[in-house]
UniProtKB/TrEMBL annotation:
This is Octanoyltransferase. Its main location: cytoplasm. Belongs to the LipB family. It is an enzyme of class 2 (transferase). Residues 36-222 form the BPL/LPL catalytic domain. Substrate binds at residues 74-81, 152-154, 165-167. One of its GO terms (biological process) is protein lipoylation. It comes from Catellatospora methionotrophica. It comes from the Bacteria. Its EC number is 2.3.1.181. It catalyses: octanoyl-[ACP] + L-lysyl-[protein] = N(6)-octanoyl-L-lysyl-[protein] + holo-[ACP] + H(+). InterPro entries: aa-tRNA-synth_II/BPL/LPL, BPL_LPL_catalytic, Octanoyltransferase, Octanoyltransferase_CS.
Length: 228
Protein backbone atom coordinates (compact mmCIF):
# COMPACT_ATOMS: atom_id res chain seq x y z
CA UNK A 1 0.00 0.00 0.00
CA UNK A 2 1.39 3.42 -1.01
CA UNK A 3 0.25 6.67 0.54
CA UNK A 4 1.33 10.31 0.36
CA UNK A 5 2.12 11.82 3.77
CA UNK A 6 3.20 15.15 2.30
CA UNK A 7 3.38 16.57 -1.23
CA UNK A 8 7.07 15.70 -1.27
CA UNK A 9 7.01 12.18 0.21
CA UNK A 10 5.45 8.84 -0.76
CA UNK A 11 5.26 6.02 1.81
CA UNK A 12 4.87 2.35 0.98
CA UNK A 13 3.81 -0.26 3.52
CA UNK A 14 5.49 -3.32 2.06
CA UNK A 15 4.66 -5.98 4.69
CA UNK A 16 7.27 -8.69 5.25
CA UNK A 17 10.02 -8.68 2.63
CA UNK A 18 13.20 -10.72 2.29
CA UNK A 19 16.23 -8.54 2.96
CA UNK A 20 17.86 -8.94 -0.46
CA UNK A 21 14.56 -8.28 -2.23
CA UNK A 22 14.15 -5.04 -0.28
CA UNK A 23 17.75 -4.08 -1.04
CA UNK A 24 17.09 -4.51 -4.77
CA UNK A 25 13.98 -2.32 -4.46
CA UNK A 26 15.95 0.35 -2.62
CA UNK A 27 18.47 0.48 -5.43
CA UNK A 28 15.70 0.68 -8.05
CA UNK A 29 14.03 3.56 -6.21
CA UNK A 30 17.38 5.24 -5.62
CA UNK A 31 18.08 5.30 -9.36
CA UNK A 32 14.61 6.73 -9.96
CA UNK A 33 14.98 9.48 -7.36
CA UNK A 34 18.40 10.40 -8.76
CA UNK A 35 16.94 10.61 -12.27
CA UNK A 36 13.75 12.37 -11.15
CA UNK A 37 11.42 9.60 -12.32
CA UNK A 38 10.49 8.51 -8.76
CA UNK A 39 9.38 10.67 -5.81
CA UNK A 40 11.09 10.70 -2.44
CA UNK A 41 9.89 7.38 -1.02
CA UNK A 42 9.99 5.60 2.34
CA UNK A 43 9.63 1.81 2.46
CA UNK A 44 8.17 0.55 5.76
CA UNK A 45 8.44 -3.19 6.30
CA UNK A 46 9.57 -6.16 8.38
CA UNK A 47 12.22 -8.69 7.42
CA UNK A 48 12.45 -12.40 8.09
CA UNK A 49 15.26 -13.00 10.57
CA UNK A 50 18.61 -11.84 9.15
CA UNK A 51 21.92 -10.40 10.31
CA UNK A 52 23.36 -7.55 8.23
CA UNK A 53 26.83 -6.05 8.55
CA UNK A 54 27.81 -2.50 7.62
CA UNK A 55 31.23 -1.57 6.29
CA UNK A 56 32.78 -1.00 9.74
CA UNK A 57 31.92 -4.43 11.19
CA UNK A 58 34.82 -6.25 12.86
CA UNK A 59 35.17 -10.07 12.62
CA UNK A 60 34.69 -10.51 16.40
CA UNK A 61 31.33 -8.72 16.28
CA UNK A 62 29.77 -11.28 13.93
CA UNK A 63 27.53 -14.18 15.08
CA UNK A 64 29.31 -16.36 17.59
CA UNK A 65 27.82 -19.55 16.12
CA UNK A 66 28.71 -18.87 12.47
CA UNK A 67 25.21 -17.85 11.36
CA UNK A 68 25.40 -16.35 7.85
CA UNK A 69 25.52 -12.55 7.54
CA UNK A 70 24.56 -10.29 4.64
CA UNK A 71 27.33 -7.73 4.07
CA UNK A 72 25.89 -4.41 2.90
CA UNK A 73 27.12 -1.01 1.73
CA UNK A 74 25.62 1.11 4.51
CA UNK A 75 27.52 2.76 7.32
CA UNK A 76 27.64 1.33 10.80
CA UNK A 77 28.28 -2.19 12.02
CA UNK A 78 26.35 -5.43 12.47
CA UNK A 79 22.72 -5.64 13.51
CA UNK A 80 19.76 -8.00 13.38
CA UNK A 81 16.46 -7.55 11.53
CA UNK A 82 13.41 -9.71 12.00
CA UNK A 83 9.73 -10.00 12.86
CA UNK A 84 8.53 -7.45 15.40
CA UNK A 85 11.01 -4.82 14.24
CA UNK A 86 9.77 -1.95 12.08
CA UNK A 87 12.33 -1.12 9.39
CA UNK A 88 12.22 2.08 7.36
CA UNK A 89 14.18 2.81 4.21
CA UNK A 90 13.94 6.51 3.26
CA UNK A 91 15.07 7.02 -0.33
CA UNK A 92 15.33 10.81 -0.27
CA UNK A 93 17.06 13.56 -2.20
CA UNK A 94 18.95 15.39 0.55
CA UNK A 95 19.67 19.10 0.86
CA UNK A 96 23.21 19.93 -0.19
CA UNK A 97 25.84 22.00 1.55
CA UNK A 98 28.26 24.46 0.05
CA UNK A 99 30.29 22.42 -2.39
CA UNK A 100 27.29 20.47 -3.61
CA UNK A 101 27.44 17.51 -1.22
CA UNK A 102 24.62 16.29 1.01
CA UNK A 103 24.88 16.75 4.77
CA UNK A 104 24.74 13.13 5.88
CA UNK A 105 25.04 13.93 9.59
CA UNK A 106 22.02 16.24 9.40
CA UNK A 107 20.03 13.42 7.75
CA UNK A 108 20.96 11.07 10.60
CA UNK A 109 19.91 13.71 13.16
CA UNK A 110 16.54 14.23 11.44
CA UNK A 111 16.00 10.46 11.47
CA UNK A 112 16.85 10.31 15.17
CA UNK A 113 14.47 13.18 15.92
CA UNK A 114 11.63 11.49 14.07
CA UNK A 115 12.13 8.29 16.11
CA UNK A 116 12.48 10.22 19.40
CA UNK A 117 9.12 11.89 18.69
CA UNK A 118 7.46 8.54 17.90
CA UNK A 119 8.78 6.98 21.10
CA UNK A 120 7.60 9.98 23.13
CA UNK A 121 4.11 9.62 21.72
CA UNK A 122 4.08 6.04 22.99
CA UNK A 123 5.35 7.12 26.42
CA UNK A 124 9.01 6.09 26.12
CA UNK A 125 11.55 8.84 26.84
CA UNK A 126 14.52 8.52 24.48
CA UNK A 127 17.48 10.63 23.44
CA UNK A 128 20.66 10.81 21.42
CA UNK A 129 23.98 9.84 22.95
CA UNK A 130 27.17 11.48 21.80
CA UNK A 131 30.08 9.20 20.96
CA UNK A 132 31.46 6.66 18.52
CA UNK A 133 28.92 4.01 17.45
CA UNK A 134 26.16 5.89 19.33
CA UNK A 135 23.98 6.97 16.42
CA UNK A 136 20.40 5.85 16.92
CA UNK A 137 17.83 6.38 19.65
CA UNK A 138 18.47 5.44 23.26
CA UNK A 139 16.80 4.93 26.62
CA UNK A 140 19.21 6.34 29.20
CA UNK A 141 20.68 4.34 32.07
CA UNK A 142 18.32 3.93 35.02
CA UNK A 143 17.58 1.46 37.81
CA UNK A 144 16.52 -1.09 35.17
CA UNK A 145 19.87 -1.19 33.42
CA UNK A 146 22.56 0.64 31.41
CA UNK A 147 22.00 2.80 28.33
CA UNK A 148 20.04 0.72 25.82
CA UNK A 149 19.29 1.28 22.15
CA UNK A 150 15.69 1.00 20.99
CA UNK A 151 16.27 2.10 17.38
CA UNK A 152 19.31 1.65 15.14
CA UNK A 153 20.27 3.83 12.18
CA UNK A 154 22.54 2.93 9.26
CA UNK A 155 22.72 5.23 6.24
CA UNK A 156 24.35 5.40 2.85
CA UNK A 157 24.21 8.44 0.56
CA UNK A 158 25.08 8.22 -3.14
CA UNK A 159 24.60 11.08 -5.61
CA UNK A 160 22.97 13.04 -2.76
CA UNK A 161 20.16 10.49 -2.37
CA UNK A 162 19.91 8.35 0.76
CA UNK A 163 19.56 4.56 1.10
CA UNK A 164 19.10 2.20 4.05
CA UNK A 165 17.66 3.80 7.17
CA UNK A 166 16.33 2.84 10.60
CA UNK A 167 15.08 -0.14 12.58
CA UNK A 168 12.77 0.36 15.58
CA UNK A 169 12.38 -2.56 17.99
CA UNK A 170 8.67 -2.97 18.69
CA UNK A 171 8.17 -6.53 19.93
CA UNK A 172 10.95 -8.65 18.37
CA UNK A 173 12.69 -11.70 19.77
CA UNK A 174 15.43 -9.84 21.64
CA UNK A 175 17.48 -13.01 22.13
CA UNK A 176 18.59 -12.63 18.49
CA UNK A 177 20.87 -9.78 19.55
CA UNK A 178 22.68 -12.01 22.04
CA UNK A 179 24.46 -13.82 19.20
CA UNK A 180 26.34 -10.71 18.03
CA UNK A 181 27.91 -7.51 19.33
CA UNK A 182 25.09 -5.25 18.08
CA UNK A 183 26.38 -2.09 16.40
CA UNK A 184 29.82 -2.92 17.84
CA UNK A 185 28.79 -1.68 21.29
CA UNK A 186 30.07 -3.62 24.29
CA UNK A 187 29.18 -1.23 27.13
CA UNK A 188 25.44 -0.84 26.53
CA UNK A 189 22.49 -3.02 25.55
CA UNK A 190 19.45 -3.14 23.28
CA UNK A 191 15.81 -2.90 24.19
CA UNK A 192 12.33 -2.74 22.66
CA UNK A 193 9.21 -0.63 23.10
CA UNK A 194 7.52 -3.71 24.54
CA UNK A 195 10.24 -4.17 27.17
CA UNK A 196 10.21 -0.50 28.14
CA UNK A 197 6.43 -0.16 28.42
CA UNK A 198 5.68 -3.57 29.91
CA UNK A 199 3.02 -4.31 27.32
CA UNK A 200 3.02 -5.69 23.79
CA UNK A 201 3.73 -2.90 21.29
CA UNK A 202 3.25 -4.26 17.79
CA UNK A 203 4.52 -3.07 14.45
CA UNK A 204 0.89 -2.50 13.45
CA UNK A 205 0.45 -0.07 16.35
CA UNK A 206 3.62 1.86 15.56
CA UNK A 207 3.22 2.09 11.77
CA UNK A 208 0.72 4.99 11.72
CA UNK A 209 2.80 6.91 14.25
CA UNK A 210 5.91 6.57 12.11
CA UNK A 211 3.96 7.69 9.04
CA UNK A 212 2.66 10.78 10.85
CA UNK A 213 6.18 11.83 11.86
CA UNK A 214 7.99 11.04 8.59
CA UNK A 215 7.80 14.66 7.32
CA UNK A 216 10.47 15.41 9.95
CA UNK A 217 12.92 13.78 7.54
CA UNK A 218 12.32 16.64 5.12
CA UNK A 219 12.72 19.49 7.61
CA UNK A 220 15.75 21.65 8.26
CA UNK A 221 17.13 20.64 11.65
CA UNK A 222 20.19 22.07 13.34
CA UNK A 223 22.05 19.07 14.80
CA UNK A 224 22.66 19.32 18.56
CA UNK A 225 26.16 17.94 17.93
CA UNK A 226 28.18 16.75 14.98
CA UNK A 227 29.76 13.50 16.19
CA UNK A 228 27.84 10.27 15.62
Amino acid sequence: MTSIVSPALAVRRAGTVEYLTAWDEQRRLHAGVVEGSEPNTVLLLEHPSVYTAGKLTEPWERPFDGTPVVDVDRGGKITWHGPGQLVGYPILRLPVQRGGLADVVAHVRRTEQMLIDVCAELGVATTRIKGNNRSGVWVREDDRGPDRKVAAIGIRVARNVSLHGFALNCDPDMTRFANIVPCGITDASVTSLTAELGRDVTVAEVLPLIERHLPTLLTTLTPPFRNS
